[in-house]
Amino acid sequence: MTTIAEPRAPRAPRNRRSTRGNFELYGWIFMRVSGVVLLVLIFGHLFVNLVQGEGISAVDFGFVAGKWASPLWQVWDLLMLWLAMIHGANGVRTIINDYAERDSVRLALKTALMASLVVVVVLGTLVIFTFDPCPVDSPANLLPSFCSA
């Protein structure tokens, strides 16, 4: 006969030591705060790009170039990128902690997760701040129509 432990019975300790401390609390708080801020950023982004403008058909290279000419939209998109990536990575980190049982697997998965987070955030940040729709010395036939050749 199999017995099931009572719901309030203490759990059996895991065979790995916990070094999380307050990090998990701060991660939990970050998820709630960043989720609310992301809602504002995303719906603001969608409203300006799709509702206030001419819809999805107007979103093209020139639209993005014009938008990123403003520091407001550069910072807006940067915040959206950073918060979304860190929010998502924190969620995946939690899933890895919950389901990866071996320490080596957990370490490998979290290392790959953090490496991909850094790559996407660094490349996205570089694109936002170094984007130049009219690069100097480019052939005129390759430049958008709004650039002066």
TrEMBL record:
SUPFAM superfamilies named among the record's database cross-references: Fumarate reductase respiratory complex transmembrane subunits
Organism domain of life: Bacteria
One Pfam family matching this protein: Sdh_cyt
Cofactor (UniProt): heme
Signal peptide coordinates: none
Stored Gene3D superfamilies: Fumarate reductase/succinate dehydrogenase, transmembrane subunit
Cell location: Cell inner membrane
Bilayer-spanning residue ranges: 25-48, 68-86, 107-131
Pathway given in the UniProt record: Carbohydrate metabolism; tricarboxylic acid cycle
Keywords from the named record: Cell inner membrane, Cell membrane, Electron transport, Heme, Iron, Membrane, Metal-binding, Transmembrane, Transmembrane helix, Transport, Tricarboxylic acid cycle
Membrane disposition: Multi-pass membrane protein
Cited function: Membrane-anchoring subunit of succinate dehydrogenase (SDH).
Protein name: Succinate dehydrogenase hydrophobic membrane anchor subunit
Name of the gene this protein is made from: sdhD
